[in-house]
Amino acid sequence: MIGIILVNLAVAIEAIAHNKTRSILTSLGIIFGVASVIAMLAIGKGAQLEIMSQIRLLGANNVIVTPVIEQSEGSVAEEEDGGPEEEKPFSPGLTMADALSIAAVVPGVEAVSPETVVETTAIQSGYRRSIKLVGVGPAYFEDSDFQLRSGTHFSAQHVNDSAPVCIIGAAVATRFFPNEEALGKRIKVGMLWLTVVGVLLPRSISDRNIERLGLRNFDLDIYTPITTMLLRFEDRARLTAADLQRAAMNQSTGQAQPAQNTHQLDRLVVRVADSRRVRPVAEVITRMLERRHNGVIDFEVTVPEALLKQERRTQNIFNVVLASIASISLIVGGIGIMNIMLASVLERIREIGIRRSMGATRRDIILQFLIEAVTITIAGGIIGVLLGVGISSSIEFFADIGTSVSAFSILIAVSVSVAIGLLFGIWPARKASLQDPVHALRYE
């Protein structure tokens, strides 16, 4: 059987080589169809990888609580007449007390990481730069999947003593300590000198993720324990003399006091032990914070995994639509192959008659034309794969859209091209085998 296949393969290759132009034009539909499928699957795979990277950035089992700064409301007439404004229940805002209560009361919570961000400046060895100082809890680096290049995380003693220590991002280490090891050195942040106890590995994040996920460039941040931040730098929940002076000045001038961020925390990341309980935990946290804030909804609870899963589901539907549209060109290419093979049968009736008269069976004729169709589609599929990889690389380079060509997509494309050769080549091959040898020999 193998010998028969090899003989018919040699005949098919000879026929293809004899009609190079027609064979190339016949395979164009397959080439472009396979290239389109490869490119579409690569774009879809790249989108899925980006979504997975977003899940890793935000944490698969995390619930994120962020404050909402309420804007002042009221009637214009009442403001002009100096009439009374509607009193609202007092809310302390998002505070450390909320974080401690969630960790102590809500079941299924593995860790709670508070976060406060302050815009300030850093100075070291005559170099000055504006940076973000981030006060974090002990579980922050684990929740956010940060890796240390050198040094250690904040110890319990650092947190309990509100120690003046910090962990710096990779870009901060490069800019402030270009020719020396940053570990153990001191850097002035705001009005306070902090000792570097750790340096993070670089963590590159695309501009698209920074914008869509509301993230920062973590490599340019300086981190300090949340207790150090609240005690030594800024605690927005504490009323200061400057706040009283500002309020008195606004009242004396008759100016409306702008909405201020009185939330002690800028973000609260709650890590749930079981991913199946993320949504129920988020609902419990929402009800709990509503009671603690006297019914004032000045916070927002989000489940990143749910949002990203919805985005992935939408992306999958979009990918299926794109792949279906691209597959139409494969079907058109298969129809083109069938038409050309039918025309080829009519042109080679005399050849069929000669082969039949020399002892070739109907199975031999079917194999000859079927192998010829499959050979054309396989060659077109291989060229299409190469073209599809090139298109994917071009899209990633010029359009800045992440793509990923997988071995599975290549296998699917080649398998589909072989299947098309078999499917659309079987009818012309069968029609060729049914030719009467006597009539075939007389055919002109």
What is the oligomer described by this structure?
Answer: single chain
Q: What portion of residues is helical? A: 55-70%
E-strand count: 10
The chain-level mean pLDDT equals 78
In the residues, how many domains can be counted?
Answer: 2
Which ranges are low-confidence, i.e. pLDDT below 50, for 5 or more consecutive residues?
74-79
Order of helices and strands: HHEHHEEHEHEHEEHEHHEHEHHHHH
- General shape: elongated
Q: Whole-Å distance between the termini? A: 33 Å
> Which sequence of strands runs across the widest sheet?
2-3-8-5-7-6
Alpha-beta content class: alpha+beta
Number of helices: 16
Characterise this structure.
The chain is α+β, with helices and mostly antiparallel strands. It has 2 domains: 2-54 and 309-442, no CATH class; 60-304, no CATH class. Helix content is 57%, strand content 15%. The chain has helices spanning 2-18, 20-58, 76-81, 96-105, 140-143, 156-160, 170-176, 207-213, 226-233, 241-253, 278-292, 304-347, 349-357, 362-398, 407-433, 437-442; strands spanning 62-67, 109-124, 127-136, 148-151, 165-168, 186-189, 192-200, 221-225, 267-272, 299-302. It has a 6-stranded mixed beta barrel. A hairpin with a 2-residue loop joins strand 2 (109-124) and strand 3 (127-136). The chain starts with a helix and ends with a helix.
